Amino acid sequence: MGRALRADAERSVRAILEAAERVLADDPGASMEQIAEAAGVTRITVHRRFANRQALMEALAVSAMRQLVDAIEDARPNAAPAFVALHRVTANALRVKSAWRFALGNPEADAGAAAAMWADINARALDLLSRARREGLLDPAADLEWTRQVYYALLSEALKRPGVDQDPDALATLVIDTLLHGAGPRD
């Protein structure tokens, strides 16, 4: 898909990717035909856009990652104090991650073009955590790589909470509070 697509072709690709997310989230072994049916297109249309299942999976990962990168940029993390930026980024990331659970949780999201996007997201997360440390939100001796990994785990766990309002802002507050204060008593 190196050249720009016509508007109808773009809509078709978007419909296929959205259907693939829904179908594969329910059944990771779903066929291209099942994805085509869910997208409201023919199997031939899916194969015209994606040569094989691997190409579809890669496009799905890249599309979801692109949306995650856009969500992080939309939070404008460098335009606010670290605490506010961390909350904005977290809420936006939760919105995207809840819509693209399969694509962003699939190991293929860590390969190919998506890998470079993950590297960029990881670097941005470390930059924001470094700023949070400089602003006194994190202990000066905090291992930022470990903190990033814990932060990502908290994001994933927040999306799994049963019976909890899935409001991204409320979940972001929970994630940030847990990241910064843990489960210990408050002073």
Q: Kindly report the average pLDDT value.
A: 89
CATH architecture grouping of the largest domain: Orthogonal Bundle
**Share of residues in strands:** under 5%
- Rg, rounded, reads 18 Å
Structural class: mainly alpha
The CATH topology name of the largest domain reads Tetracycline Repressor, domain 2
Note poorly predicted spans: none
| Structure summary, number of beta strands | 0
Main pleated sheet = none
What letter string, H or E per element, gives the SSE order? HHHHHHHHH
Helix content: over 70%
List keywords for this structure.
single chain; 187 residues; mainly alpha; Arc Repressor Mutant, subunit A; Tetracycline Repressor, domain 2; 2 domains; 9 helices; 0% strand; elongated; Helix-turn-helix domain-containing protein; HTH_TetR
Q: What can you see in these coordinates?
A:
This protein is mainly α and 187 residues long. It folds into 2 domains: 1-50, Arc Repressor Mutant, subunit A; 57-181, Tetracycline Repressor, domain 2, CATH 1.10.357.10. Helices cover 72% and strands 0% of the residues. It has 9 helices and no strands. Helix 5 (82-99) packs across helix 8, helix 7 (112-134) packs across helix 8 (144-160) and helix 8 packs antiparallel against helix 9. The N and C termini lie far apart (55 Å). The relative contact order is 0.10. The model has no long low-confidence stretch (mean pLDDT 89). InterPro entries: Homeodomain-like_sf, HTH-type_TetR-like_transc_reg, HTH_TetR. Residues 31-50 bind DNA. Keywords: DNA-binding. This is Helix-turn-helix domain-containing protein.
